[in-house]
Amino acid sequence: MVRDPVPSLEAFGPLPAATRALRVGMIGIGTVGGGTFRVLARNQRQIAARAGRGIEVVAVAARDLQRAARVVGPAVPVTADPFELATDPAIDVVLEAAGGTGAARDWVLAAIAHGKHVVTANKALLAVHGEQIFAAARARGVAVAYEGAVAVSIPIVKALREGLVANRIEWLAGIINGTSNFVLSRMRDEGLGFADALREAQALGYAEADPAFDVEGIDAAHKLTLLAANAFGMPLRLADVQVEGITALQEADVRGAGQLGFRIKLLGVARRTADGVELRVQPTLLPATHLLAQVDGAMNGVMVKGDAAGVTMYYGAGAGSEQTASAVIADLVDLARLDGVPPAQQVPHLGVHPHATEALPVLPHAASRGVRWVRVPLVAGQGLDALQALLAEHGVPLRRAVWASATPVEAPEALCLTEAMGQATLDDALRALAAHPAVRGPIRALPVEMLDA
Ligand code: HSE
Fold it and tell me: Pick from 175, 452, 180, 170: which is nearest to 292 by CA?
């Protein structure tokens, strides 16, 4: 006899009496929506036992009706008009799983206006329009939940807003774009070209509809914006994030970083300093032995430093259909549990109650400080001493300077590691250096993070 491995609901004891299912209207049935539908169906009994009530998808809106019907079957009505769901009194929660920042905003605002909670994994929508959406939700007394928007499977929003609530967060640093991490890993480990590695990430369903969002660092900037707001109790400041993607990275950078004992990762960093908050997404060197440097493929990792907890680290899939569904359903369960709880007693959208939000200044890039790695192509015959002297003349304190091992004698390259220094000083020095006759080609400078305190 084949036994059902899933225990019945009754096995968990009686459910509370006044518990009809939470009724979900799903907009979009692609990677996120499809995965959510599948996991909800597969684990419905455990999920209901944990939520205290069932969670039921009662309608789906999709562009391709036939494809949607194939995914959800005949029992779930399918419409081409998302506003039908946003305004339907029989729906409690609208799950926005379509993406984009245009129409998606209108659907979400319409759902809120009709008294519905919203769940979304759409980081672009929230990083760009979050203030408006959260304000509308507060005014209407509904919740907007978005665990799936950041580092999909990792419950990092919950960790910041709830688990680490006692802490003054000092910094967080994360590999928060699965696609670009996958591309970098494939290039380093398999020697794949950038375009091939990206095509693979697209085929695996990791990339955004427009993969430029992934490889140009924009998607990571969206996520960093949400993380920084939750970590520091500050408003969403997407426009102030310093963003650089991985498209300009060269093999010589990866090799040169490795020679000095580092790995390059597309890292999002949010750090409190005496003068303001540093917010940046950039290819960054991490010591090769650092835990975050071990985060490879489409995995994500986020490290958070709190004054009480110290350093904590979170690791998990950074992209994928059911991986995102895991977070989306966690949000649905939260909503199923909190029905009837007054908004003032709910976890605030961005971690602090709005009246307590601090408009912390964001540091301009030039005002940031830190260790930098610099690769300088030199004219043959130049000495490292001369380069060191030149940099010292421009106020750049060097920790190390070596020849890049894999470059030919007629086209040498120097690899330098600075002491902690101001970015403005470095920028001035590199401008002067670029014009010097001893320099043969474009200089590359990248930040180094030790993340050891
Ligand atoms: N394109 C995103 C990534 C999906 O690669 O991280 C998850 O947000």
Answer: 175
Strands 55-61 and 78-79: parallel
Task: Respond yes or no: is residue 116 known to be catalytic.
Answer: no
**Cβ-contact 307, 267 below 8 angstroms:** no
pLDDT greater than 50 at residue 176 = yes
Backbone torsion region of residue 320, taken as left when φ is above 0, otherwise alpha when ψ lies between -120 and 50, otherwise beta: left
pTM of the predicted protein model: 0.94
pLDDT (tens digit per residue) in 308-353: 999 999 999 999 999 999 999 999 999 999 878 888 899 999 999 9
Taking the C-alpha atoms of residue 184 and residue 193, their distance in angstroms, rounded to an integer, is: 10
What are the DSSP E strand ranges found in 297-378?
299-306, 310-317, 369-377
Q: What is the mean pLDDT of residues 70-89?
A: 97
283 has pLDDT over 90:
yes
Catalytic: which of 116, 123, 158, 223? 223
d(CA 367, CA 364) in angstroms, rounded, equals 5
Q: Which atom of ligand 1 is nearest to the CA of 151?
A: 8
**pLDDT tens digits, residue range 127-146?**
999 999 999 999 999 999 99
> 262-273 and 276-287: which strand pairing?
antiparallel
- Please state, in angstroms and rounded to a whole number, the distance separating the CA atoms of residues 35 and 287: 36
Give distance in angstroms: CA of 301 to centre of ligand 1.
13
pLDDT at 3 over 50: no
Is 384 exposed, middle or buried, given 0-12, 13-18 or 19+ CB atoms closer than 10 A? middle
Q: Which residues contact 52 (CB under 8 A, 6 or more apart)?
A: 15, 16, 19, 336, 337
| Paired tokens of 280 | 């940046």
Neighbours of 393 (CB within 10 A): 11
Ligand 1 centre distance from Cα of residue 196 (Å): 18
**Pocket residues for ligand 1 (CB within 6 Å)?**
152, 177-179, 206-208, 214, 219, 318-319
